[in-house]
Design brief:
This protein is of the alpha+beta class and about 375 residues long. Helix content is about 50%, strand content about 15%.
Length: about 375
């Protein structure tokens, strides 16, 4: 179905990709990817000899006040420069043309597969080892609690007179998420140390499996900032339990069995801790072999950590991961209410918020007996 935006997108492609300048409308093909944050298109030039033949067109949707656009542009450029993200061909306020990476998105059940899980540990360790001076070294949640604009926008959205009676019932329930009691609780349990550069949005659509080597690649650093280490881990595995390939409302389903069990989480963390310590040259030399051979990982763990220190470090990371898991539900419920009735993406944001609030409360009771 032809989108009303396609004429503008075609003009933008022709004006910003020199090789596309003379292409007719019929020679530009759009395929919409499944996404709940932006409209993302794979765009192909249906004519031989065009370079680049395929690009990604990302149309940013309705996140004013949620995403710091200036910071996002800086981060995207830094990730492109360091090889952790796709190249940028062109960008304006609500459109970006990016390099197409031949790949597919990770599938929900694949987080349970040992080799892929260990590759995720390597990729995440690399991101967390970066220093990005263009971004203020303040933890995401500390920033939210100090600069209340993000939460204030949520409160204002909850008070708008735009909801049906059924929607209002959900809003009245989830608006308690930003009560002073909840903010004080989050501040009290928030890890203040172990702050690293973080992706913050590792849902399935942002994790690619490359065709060439079946490596894991992270894309879309729109929400990237500094954060406590366990948030990315908890958020990533939380997203493993959400399947967004559902064709009818609410357009998602939850598969709790995809969350790693204790043994799988510890395996992930052992690999993560090794890759955080290893140099790039060591990883290039032995990384693939280590992913296949767990004995090599234990050799490196013995090299980098004393046994008691290793045990302590893993237990600390498990605790941080569970806090990150819980706070992921809180963050994305606030985001979902803001997105509701703001964008025309076919997704039930309000039901998403309701589910997230209930899961947040369940985890709060389970982890902290609150």
């Amino acid at each position: 179905m032809e989108s009303n935006d396609f004429p503008r997108f075609r003009d933008y492609l022709r004006n910003n990709l020199p090789g596309w300048k003379g292409l007719a409308d019929s020679e530009i093909e759009f395929i919409l990817f499944n996404s709940i944050t932006n409209k993302v298109y794979k765009v192909t030039a249906k004519k031989e000899g065009i370079s680049p033949q395929v690009v990604i067109l990302r149309n940013f949707c309705g996140k004013e006040g949620i995403v710091d656009k200036e910071k996002e542009i800086k981060v995207f450029k830094e990730m492109s420069k360091t090889g952790f993200g796709p190249k940028c061909y062109s960008q304006e306020d609500d459109i970006r043309l990016e390099e197409f990476i031949p790949s597919r998105t990770i599938l929900p059940h694949e987080y349970k597969e040992k080799i892929i899980r260990r590759k995720l540990a390597r990729t995440l360790a690399a991101i967390h080892s970066l220093e990005v001076p263009e971004v203020e070294r303040v933890s995401l949640f500390e920033g939210i609690l100090k600069d209340t604009r993000f939460l204030r926008m949520y409160d204002e959205k909850c008070e708008e007179d735009i909801y049906s009676p059924e929607e209002k019932e959900i809003i009245n329930k989830v608006k308690q998420a930003t009560s002073q009691e909840e903010k004080d609780f989050i501040d009290s349990i928030l890890p203040k140390d172990d702050i690293v550069f973080s992706h913050n949005d590792l849902l399935q659509g942002n994790i690619l499996i490359s065709e060439a080597k079946e490596e894991t690649v992270f894309i879309d650093y729109e929400y990237a900032s500094y954060n406590f280490r366990g948030y990315d881990i908890g958020n990533m595995f939380k997203e493993a339990t959400f399947d967004y390939r559902v064709p009818q409302r609410p357009y998602f389903q939850i598969i709790d069995a995809n969350f790693p069990n204790d043994e799988e989480l510890r395996d992930f963390l052992k690999y993560y801790l090794v890759f955080v310590k290893m140099s790039t040259s060591e990883q290039n030399e032995r990384g693939d072999e280590m992913i296949e051979n767990e004995e090599l990982v234990h050799e490196y763990l013995d090299k980098f950590y004393q046994p008691e220190k290793l045990k302590e470090r893993i237990e600390t990371l498990i605790k941080e991961t569970m806090i990150g898991y819980m706070l992921s539900f809180h963050y994305w419920l606030v985001w979902a209410v803001k997105m509701h009735k703001t964008v025309d993406i076919e997704f039930d944001y309000l039901e998403f918020a309701r589910v997230h609030y209930e899961r947040y409360l369940d985890l709060k009771k389970k982890i902290f007996d609150k």
